[in-house]
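Issue 218. Parser rejects a valid record. Input:
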Amino acid sequence: MKVNLKTIAFISLLFITAGVQAQIGKYQWKESTEGGYTYKYVTNDPVQTRFYKLKNGLTVILSPNNKQPRIQAYIATKAGSKTDPKDHTGLAHYLEHMLFKGTDKFGSLDWSKEKPLLDQVDNLYEKYNHTTDVNDRAAIYKEIDRVSGEASKYAIPNEYDKLMSSMGSKGTNAFTSFEQTVYVEDIPNNVLDKYLAVQAERFRNPILRLFHTELESVYEEKNISLDNDNRKSVETVFAAMFPNNNYGKQTVLGSVEHLKNPSLKAIREYYNTYYVPNNMGIIMSGDFNPTDVIQRIDKAFSTMKAMSVPAYTFEKEQAITSPITKTVIGPTSEYLLLGFRFPGAADADAQILNLMANVLTNGSAGLIDLDLVKSQKLLGAGAFPYVLKDYSMLILQGNPGTGQSLEDVKKLLLGELDKLRKGQFSDDLLTSIVNNEKKGQIKLFENYTSTAEQLMSGFTSEIDWAKELAYTDRLSKITKEDIVRFANKYLSEVNYVAVYKQKGQDDKVDKVIKPAITPITVNRNVESAFLKQINAMPEQDIKPRWIDFAKDMSTAKLKDLDVLAVQNKNNELFSLTYYFDFGSWDNKLLSLAVGYLEFLGTKDKSSEDFSKAFYKLASDFSVSSANEESSVSVSGLNSNFTASIDLLQDLMHNCVVDEAAFKAYIERVKQSKANAKENKAAIMEGLKAYARYGTKNPFNYTYTDQELDGLKAADLVAVLHNLANAKHRVLYYGPQIVADLVKNLKPLKQNDLPYYTIEKGVKFEEKPTTENKVLFAQYAMKQAEVFWIRNSGMFDKNEIPTVAFFNGYFGGGMGSIVFQTLRESKALAYTTYAYYGQPQKEENHGMVGAYIGTQSDKFKDAVGGMNELLNELPESKVGLESIRTNLLKSLASERITGAGILSSYLAAQRRGLTEDSRKMVFEQLPKLKFSDLKAFHTNNISHKPYIYCIVGDEKDLNKGTISALGNLQKLSLNEIFGY
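Output the parser choked on:
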């Protein structure tokens, strides 16, 4: 489970309100029968969802969508970390991992020989689990390792992934949260019978094979979480907020102590208790006939037997009568979290929580947006609802600016809650929120993947679909007085949890130590009879559909400007972009100027006025500057198209200097730059840029604090005005045909003067990789992260098919050589991958990239393991054909539509291509052999020099091991960031 401040806002949209009677008339539950199956549905449902309940209690939710010949499928269990046994926390999560290991029919070479060995492993783990003596435990684990190694000789690692890959599935994954464990696939619609056969078998009799290496990857995941300050902070909020509920008493990944003492028997007991049909659901959205699909699902899963599921019980939480204060220490920048407790999803008050959160934060015109972010009183701030079954929570987050303490942040956040309780916000804000929620619902139902996700979340949270559809209608009936009453009921000056995320070294982290593991047998070139049986099942071909840029995209002229357009025939959403062929490399001020625009107004309207106006129109705008291109974009509802464009053009042309905003903005930029130097991901990006381009590179092409102090606000405003008068292209996706668009759209440049021109600026070029080198950055962390970089040759369009095939086979996905070897066989990492990256522009160089994140004590083995694969490419005939089939089926069933056509055209143009490159891949794939991949590997990867970018804690790493990789260069943060 990923819990961070951005995903909390997203999660809140998935658990929106329940507990209020569905709107009478428009959205009503009805019942119907077709094909011998009775189902329920909701009138006026825009995605025509059918809700079935099979005889064994299995819930099946089907939503047809014929826009792409694919199906997003979820198999969900209403059980997660909340139902973990208290003496085996983390169990639901590592059971999720084990459900990729197969059954007695697949994943095994010889079940009769494998089973006795796995029984021994079972018993050894039980003995290990109940042994406390350190030496005795070490001896038992050594035997576990030995017997597991023998058992692995009869196992076929990742055969599940090969099964799904051969169907053309993408997005193979699973996740565990508090109240759900969900298994995810996105499949072509012509392999539904294969999918159902595999899933029915998967849940029939899962075998917990290859357990000790998979558990090691869970250890790695746990250690990653111990380096994640955001996760630690949110978990601290939950622990303080819910001392009586497993929301707070247990974490999804479990405790270190429990992870060290796993029980296979406890895992099976959990599976047998909760993985029963009356506690599970199959949710699908895509191109299918529901009447046909329900029959197939029933046939596949009818053997599952219903059983009673124990209800989760808990002691009611006591009211918080005084602030609960906690501190989290870590290397990232400081921030504050404030958490408030609310009733669960079934409570009548829960419907107001999401609306109230939008009053505080909606990204444009909420109280916090305007008072704290737009006014630059804080570096960042927001309010995020988190709605669950038993309880809900509102989390406020604030990031201090220069010179501010976390107490200052708390005072400002609590001040906004005081305004909320007093009703100091506009009545118009509620109307604007409803309009934006309606737009959001249209976007949500645009594609089959988001529809399926919404339905799945509703199932696991037990949300009434009729109430979900009526959500915006109910919001429109909530008054300002309701919000004020609600805020005064639940948000007091003292009933909160405060978590102070402070910068420093956390010396209390209990890392999971690496056990001694002997690499297991991979068995790359074998396959089970079940896999052969599945692959032999018949399926109808799907005809591929490539983009024809001449037919699928309209072109026109707006005066002398090129207009590229694709019509939206599905709904009233539009997006329009002014696209410029210059960027921050050409004018270093450009990236600063577009950031400054957020805080500017005109002589007639303040910055706050513009934010409110855009939000009232349910429109969004953005201005961005990349290295070599820039864009000004606006999106929203077609009914507000003209008003949105007028508003944007007014701001671009007439924005005026605001000296107070400029001073605060420069301080904001300085603080953001300082915070970046405390972020390990940013540090790694800096090392990678250093490796590719040298000492002076795009990453550190920026301003020092002293240079920032010398800038003038007028210079930034001039850059913005010049941008509005520069030549560009217009990219449009929306309901208007292109002829009407050019009639209705006013040009961005509104005078008869010549276009503003900008000379090409600095050009960064990739440096040849001529020798092995190590770039090391110090960071206090439990793991070490390594990224290999090698600059390679120029873009060659003839290599596109080979590169696509090679990347799938070698380093992408669970079935790849890199993943199977380094994670499955050697248990050296949770995340690892490798790839050859072709350049995005024809004049640039490609690169070889490889990554592994590993415990510091496994560093030498992990780096050595990756180097072996970079030098020698193993052959797997089964893996090769699995990837080939996956690519062919994925390409045949993929449909690039809408705004994706425009971005595909621009991408092709940058590479000098005139047609959809997927066609070339599809046509050449059947002809490619392993010898072609081997030759590509030899020419571009094998026994070549690399630059190793390493972020880690040098006190935990062996300097000799690092130095042996190449010439070691320890970079300071100033060298990496340029300031």
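Fixed in the parser; the record now loads. The radius of gyration is 29 Å.
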